[in-house]
Amino acid sequence: MPYRTPTLDDHFVGGPPKRILALDGGGLRGILTLGILQHIEDTLRERHGGATQFRLSDYFDLIAGTSTGAIIAATLALGWSVKDVATKYFELGEKVFQRSLLRQGFVRARYDERLLIEELKKVYGDQTTLGSRDLRTGFLAVIKRLDTSSPWPVSNNPKGKYFSSRPGGTIGNGDYLLWQAVRASTAAPDYFDPERITVAALPGHVPVYGDFIDGGVSPFNNPAFQAFMYATLGGYNVNWPTGEDKLLLVSVGTGSATTVIRRSEIAAAHAFRSLLSLMDDVAGMQEALLQWMSASPTARQIDGELGTLEGDLLGGKALLSYARYDANLGSDGIEKLLGKAESATIPVENLTAMDAPENMRDLHRLGVAAGLRDVKDAHFPRAFDLP
């Protein structure tokens, strides 16, 4: 039976059940995310009658992203198909991540943000705001304000406390340019310069600016837990109900592998890898929390003591249904995905790099394989089907 395409109002204020899609940061490894998303879209399209016009923005009421996940999330929220996003993503990666001998060392960011801005404006338009009705569903980007060291979840929720501009000069989230919010979420230190956004302005007064960097430099490189809080904590004024059959959270990663630190590495590199390790620890803690409070058919082993948390449920009752998809980019993980012969064709050494366009075809192939292996129709309970 054909479904009725939901409106933006349906997504935000319509009754339960509600569905959230959360997309990790990870630079150009976002193309792996798109490989997994392709199978999610195919699964849900078949569930809803096979219509070619079906989009993830029809099914999910909120699409959240950090960094490269914000690029994908915003494009999906505009109603693009996963296939079209992937096509554009390959093009963007090749254009933006061009290495230059003039941008080496600690003085300048590795890449020219002007190339990224140009491409983002092409995708979103140079005047489209977060409050635009061009966004067909809820959208949430995680950015971090550098001068106040605070994570900012910015959204198109029309009831949000900071959505509308105020007479005192404060500029609301709804008036932020979409390309600029996404660009801020992707401004990874060392890779791109911060994005400066005007946050307050009054005639005759000096504007107040905020310098924003990649949301990955916060606890929410994986934005799943932030998205859950955004949807359910009263202060954010979304106020969706919790419950196993009322709230579905689907989280998609960009691939992971154990970081190996060699004694010969210089101290700066060692410190940087330690920071990455801390980010992995935060992501792992959030996954454990979500498994602890949810019904999760994809629950992974936390560690040798805790296992998958089967039998443990915070408060004794599931607050949501939760599915997490990712791919192990280590040699063993790739071999399990593709088989021994095919995995031997993939160079593993630099596969986790965030800025290597030469890896994109292999990463997409791994994402597609992970989607085919891991995404199951049963992970999307019938209670969450569109009416």
> What is the rounded Rg?
20 Å
For the biggest sheet, the summary is:
9 strands, mixed
**Secondary-structure-derived class:** alpha/beta
How many helices in DSSP terms? 12
Seen as an oligomer or otherwise, the chain set is: single chain
How would you state the average pLDDT, rounded? 90
Provide the β-strand percentage band.
5-15%
H-E order? HEHHEHHHEEHEEHEHEEHHH
Bin the helical content. Answer: 25-40%
Number of strands: 9
In whole angstroms, the N-to-C terminal distance is 9 Å
Shape: globular
Q: Give the uncertain stretches in residue-range form.
A: 259-265
Blueprint (SSEs and pairs):
Blueprint: H1 8-13, E1 18-23, H2 30-47, H3 56-59, E2 62-66, H4 68-77, H5 82-96, H6 113-124, E3 138-145, E4 150-155, H7 178-185, E5 195-200, E6 208-214, H8 224-232, E7 247-252, H9 267-292, E8 294-295, E9 320-325, H10 331-338, H11 340-343, H12 360-374
Parallel strand pairs: 1-2, 1-7, 2-3, 7-9, 8-9
Antiparallel strand pairs: 3-4, 3-6, 5-6
Helix pairs in contact: 2-5, 2-12, 4-7, 6-7
Give structural notes.
- This protein has 387 residues and is α/β, with parallel strands linked by helices.
- It is 35% helix and 13% strand.
- The protein is built from 12 helices and 9 strands.
- The protein has helices at residues 8-13, 30-47, 56-59, 68-77, 82-96, 113-124, 178-185, 224-232, 267-292, 331-338, 340-343, 360-374, and strands at 18-23, 62-66, 138-145, 150-155, 195-200, 208-214, 247-252, 294-295, 320-325.
- Strands 1, 2, 3, 4, 5, 6, 7, 8 and 9 form a 9-stranded mixed beta sheet that branches.
- β5 and β6 (208-214) form a beta hairpin.
- α6 (113-124) packs across α7 (178-185).
